[in-house]
């Protein structure tokens, strides 16, 4: 008999089963994603990673999952430089678009300066803020 279980501690194999099932469904539905990780790292003088971008490319799109600039480097165009490098790699991979989301007003301005346009808003996420979803057209090489 099928059961539905709620948990806040799913095992790696539980998550793998969901991911593999969804991946197989999507591949059958729209074709393989070609998902590949992409990261652009900021390193300090000792070579320690202190910030950067983490994301992936899939189905012709770059998705920036995380972007962090240390406070000491903010206000110097660093977010734009990171995005530019990630976008160049995405273009080399044949991507035609990029998307990112944020609820930080400072990050929103930085992404808009980098050419991203809002395509969606989720009000009160978190309370008192809105989460914005942005996209940018890329020119594949």
Structure, explained:
The protein is an alpha+beta fold. The chain has a single domain (34-137), classed as 3-Layer(aba) Sandwich (Aminopeptidase). Helices cover 30% and strands 33% of the residues. The chain is built from 3 helices and 6 strands, in the order H-E-E-E-H-E-H-E-E. The chain has a 6-stranded mixed sheet, with helices on one face. It is globular, with a radius of gyration of 18 Å. The mean pLDDT is 97.
CATH class: Alpha Beta
Task: Give the fraction of residues assigned to helices.
Answer: 25-40%
The share of residues in extended strands comes to: 25-35%
Number of helices: 3
Distance from first to last alpha carbon: 52 Å
What composes the largest sheet? Answer: 6 strands, mixed
Descriptive terms for the model:
141 residues, 33% strand, 6-stranded mixed β-sheet, Aminopeptidase, alpha+beta
A few lines on this structure:
Helices cover 30% and strands 33% of the residues. The protein contains three helices and six strands, in the order αβββαβαββ.
What topology does this entry show?
Blueprint: H1 12-30, E1 36-43, E2 49-58, E3 61-68, H2 78-92, E4 97-102, H3 105-113, E5 117-123, E6 130-137
């Amino acid at each position: 008999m099928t059961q539905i279980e709620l948990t806040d501690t799913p095992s790696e194999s539980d998550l793998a089963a969901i991911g593999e099932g969804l991946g197989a469904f999507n591949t059958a539905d729209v074709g393989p994603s070609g998902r590949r990780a992409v990261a652009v790292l900021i390193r300090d003088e000792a070579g320690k990673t202190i910030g950067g971008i983490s994301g992936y490319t899939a189905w012709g799109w770059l998705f920036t999952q995380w972007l962090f600039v240390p406070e000491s480097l903010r206000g110097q165009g660093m977010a734009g430089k990171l995005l530019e490098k990630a976008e160049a790699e995405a273009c080399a991979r044949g991507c035609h678009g990029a998307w990112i989301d944020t609820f930080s007003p400072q990050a929103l301005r930085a992404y808009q300066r980098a050419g991203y346009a809002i395509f969606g808003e989720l009000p009160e996420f978190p309370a008192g803020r809105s989460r914005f979803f942005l996209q940018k057209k890329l020119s594949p090489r």
